[in-house]
Amino acid sequence: MPESSARSRPKAVPPVEAEEAPTDMLGRFWTIPNALSLMRLAVVVPIAALIWTDGSLEWLFGLIVFGALTDFLDGRVARWSHAISGWGKILDPLADKFAAVMTISALTFRGAEPTLPLWFFGLVVGRDLLILAGGSLIARRTGQVVMSGALGKAAVASLALTVLYAVLGADPAVLDYCVWISTGLLVGSFLVYVGRYVWLEQTGGLPKRAQRESEPLRGKRAGVREKGRAEASHLSSNGTADAEASNAPTKHSATTEVATKNGVARSS
Prior knowledge:
Elements: H1 3-7, H2 22-26, H3 32-53, H4 57-80, H5 86-109, H6 118-142, E1 144-146, H7 150-167, H8 172-203, H9 208-212, E2 214-216, H10 220-237, H11 239-267
Antiparallel strand pairs: 1-2
Helix pairs in contact: 3-4, 3-5, 5-6, 5-7, 6-8, 7-8
């Protein structure tokens, strides 16, 4: 085959890697921070059982302190040990929402007084389910996990105080006040989540404030692979133009080579 013909072949487009499975995207599962989050998930069940049966306050507060300690440590251990993963960014808020739903459920349907109103139970459960669904859609489309903002953290703190006052049997007027304050904060923080999702639908991205409050779902290696896929797709879509561009210097080189050979032949 002539050399010029071999050189005129377009460059092969690098193969695109197979799509990653969702579990590969999330990184390692069995890490110390993830184990702490799983322990917090597990301890919620006996806490809810003690609230339901109006059990020992000593055991109840001991388990609550243990759960709070795991919540305090998991993120710090992850940063200290460089074990941050997509699993941890999912398990941590999931454990918090599971704890909220279970404790509110026990306080709503238990036989002992005081109890929380049924509409408040529906508000908490419905809000958390919608936030989980919306957060999952945002993570799939943007690769980012949006963390709780200031209003969301205030809502969680107010909800925790409401649960505490209900467990301690606070005065009904005080408990009602806590319920209404929590309701306002829960609704306000939910509207913030709705605004983020509407913005994503209209612009294809997250608002700047949400970007500052978000963390990448995937690690650096996954990001490099994603960049490689994008480059491969770009090369594939522009393969014809790239091939023509690469043929131009090849043709010039072949012409120069022929001219050089002819010049040598004439001079001899």
